[in-house]
Amino acid sequence: MRQIGILTSGGDASGMNAAIRAVVRAAASVGIRSLGVRNGFDGLMRGDFQRLGPKSVAHILQRGGTILGTARAPEIETEDGRSRAAEQMAASELDGLVVIGGEGTLRAGQKLHEEHGCKIVAVPATIDNDIAGADMCIGFDTAVNAAVEAMDRIRDTAESSGRVFFVEVMGRTRGLIALYAGLSGGADAIVIPEEHEDIDVLCRRLVAAHRGGKRSLLVVVAEGDEAGGAFSVADQVQQRLNGRLQVDYRVTVLGHLQRGGVPTAADRILGTVLGAAAIECLNNGLDHHMVSEAGTTPIFTPLEEVLSATRELPSDLMHLLHTVGQS
Question: How far apart (Å, rounded) are the C-alpha atoms in residues 174 and 179?
């Protein structure tokens, strides 16, 4: 293994730079050169590379986002797009490729391996934390902390004014951010796709909490819940209650506030551990694997195994959701 490529793809996640830094430095320590791929798979198909070395990745650990850039690249989902990507890898003499991103990134990497024999190692980085086989994905901890900080601020004004706030957090098909942020932020109700929340049940819970003496109420809603986002849930609650709860309603959508910002220490350590493990994986001939960790011990899982499974919500936290996580 003489030279590798590194790319970040899909949605950015705080901690990606820590992973890039660790990959480059770990590679250099064993005599492997690194090329950064600008703007994800789009850059790979176009051959948009830049030389990376230990000095070029200095002072990026504390930065959010990704210094390499990221972009959605629908063409990588086609055979022609993957052929062009493989040709660029061969032309640039890349012996392996470290891909950092979410499920779509992992699937594209697996296809490159299956169709063209490319040596791929994947590092899971997505604020949704929905990759099977990875207890924690890069970016999740920072996103949850950003949501909790916002909720704490909202709780202050909600308590002062006696209002009901519906706070929408990211999570298209999975409710992990809502679950973690809701539990740690003391939400009065948590609405997630996995639970199929009944609006009438939610209404009864809010009325009971208000009549029980709660001056303010905070409902956390995952953006991908089947009842809709926070605006839809708030509208349905208002229509059902029809004046029975004499309080003002407000909706706050946190959106991309959760995605950016300075990565937490946990995401910096995770990115560092997984980035270094990616080089270990390639050096040991374990291509088309994903690296994750148990504690701080790297685990290597075949990509086909990762992509054939579904990440389930932690059963212990789901139990807490039903016992202490709702008013």
Answer: 10
Tokens describing residue 100: 């950092």
Would you state the structure tokens that stand for residue 299, as one six-digit string?
């685990």
Catalytic residue among 12, 48, 80, 128, which?
128
Quick check: 86 and 116 in contact, CB under 8 A? yes
- β-strand partners of 4: 34, 96
* Position 191, amino acid: V
**Calpha distance 232→224 (Å, rounded):** 11
DSSP 3-state percent helix, strand, coil across the chain (nearest 5): 45, 20, 35
Q: CA 250: distance to chain centroid?
A: 27
* Residue 70 near residue 9 (C-beta atoms within 8 A): yes
pLDDT band at 153 (very low <50, low <70, confident <90, very high): very high
CA 214 → CA 27, 145, 197, 218, 289, distances in Å? 56, 25, 22, 10, 50
Residue 299: alpha-carbon gap to chain centroid? 19
The whole-angstrom separation of Cα 286 and Cα 301 is 9
What tens digit of pLDDT does each residue of 164-192 get?
A: 999 999 987 789 999 999 999 999 999 99
Beta carbons within 10 angstroms of residue 122's beta carbon: 32
Q: Which tokens sit at 202?
A: 């939610």
267 noted as active-site residue: no
* Element housing 8 (H / E): strand 3-8
Query: Cβ atoms within 10 A of the Cβ of 11, count?
Result: 20
Domains with residue ranges and CATH for the chain: 3-139+263-307 (3.40.50.450), 141-260 (3.40.50.460)
- Confidence bin at 316 (pLDDT 50/70/90): confident
